[in-house]
ABC transporter ATP-binding protein (Methylopila turkensis), 241 residues
Amino acid sequence: MTEPMLTIRGVTAYYGAIAALKGVDIDVAKGEIVTLIGANGAGKSTLMMTIFGSPQARDGSIVYDGRDITRMPTHEIARLRIAQSPEGRRIFPRMTVLENLQMGAAVTQFAHFDEDLRRMFDLFPRLKERVSQRGGTLSGGEQQMLAIARALMSRPQFLLLDEPSLGLAPLIAKQIFAAIGELNRTEGLTVFLVEQNAYHALKLAHRGYVMVNGSITLSGAGRELLEREEVRAAYLEGGRH
């Protein structure tokens, strides 16, 4: 593995008295796509939010690009060229597509706005067709494209993607995964992907981790995990969407 971009060691997180994360260890190297798969409620989204400082880890450490960010506030983490596209496509529904993308670009003071806008429209041509439409009137797939594009407008080095295919038609989900692969190949973008669609996620990822009840139970190369009997039985039976 090349130099680590993100190192998570022994991380625990709680909701009240309930342990949501139980000593999680994960590494993401620069230029990798790493995926975390697991059933609904396994703790995947909690880990994603903990990396971004809300909730903060109770124990353990999160080191990003050589810097300990475990206790750092969320707004400071956002300045470190980490972008997040959270579960549920939290776009601004009353704003147009263009205004949503402007919100993403605010982090960089609009330094490369026109160039980045062109990149997003090349990546997601549907957004160009919908540029003056309000976010809330877009289809689910279009909203997901907008959520990812908004995150990318901040020119991140590291992208956190939480359940990008959730609730999407298989064809649209495939387009989303293809766009993520393209960004990684052409721009070297490092991606940490939390996903229930294990088949597409493991096919796309260089490496993967399996989470069960807040603990990592398996890790390995994406293709290798796809072949593991226990992974196939738990996550892939009838699941090649």
